[in-house]
Design brief:
With 105 residues, the chain is α+β, with helices and mostly antiparallel strands. It is built from one helix and six strands; from the N terminus they run βββββαβ.
Length: 105
């Protein structure tokens, strides 16, 4: 059995960077998916392709794979980390709990 360890890409609907720093351990599919002729549902032979484990670090995911005796491939991300944009006196400044000036219209 083989597994893939990678960092997930952020969702296209997200603008933030939350939950993008972790690593995912996922088994490779054992057999291709097949379609049931009667109902049209798709299924596969093994249940391991439904298993997806999240880890904080790459080393933790590798240690898990080695402890279970699973061969693995590490896929490094090619995208660069985005620099946060923080504007002084921007729109978010209106909602800071410890404002320096009172907020009035």
């Amino acid at each position: 059995m083989r597994a893939k360890i990678y960092t997930p890409a952020r969702n296209a609907m997200q603008s933030g960077q939350a939950k993008t720093g972790g690593w995912v351990f996922e088994y490779a599919p054992v057999a291709p998916k097949r379609t049931d002729p009667l109902m049209g549902w798709s299924g596969s032979k093994g249940a391991t392709n439904q298993l997806r484990l999240n880890f904080d670090t790459k080393e933790a995911a590798i240690a898990y794979a080695e402890s279970k005796g699973v061969e693995y491939d590490v896929v490094e991300s090619t995208s660069r980390a985005r620099k946060p944009i923080i504007r002084k006196m921007g729109y978010a400044e209106n909602f800071v709990p410890d404002r320096r000036m009172p907020w009035t219209h």
